[in-house]
Model the fold of this input.
Amino acid sequence: MAEIINLKQVRKARERAAKDAQAAENRVVFGRPKAAKTREEARKSLESARHEGHRLKTPDGEA
Done:
């Protein structure tokens, strides 16, 4: 015989799990201090500048 389940409880548990997953994702994205954000931004801009600095010139003279 099949087990009887309450569909409302299953639906609410599924929604609760989705909200918990979203909250965990938001903690990662928004939970960093400002100093860490600016340090990461500076690191990315430095890497980008170094990468562009190694670019070869094209025959047209454009970068």
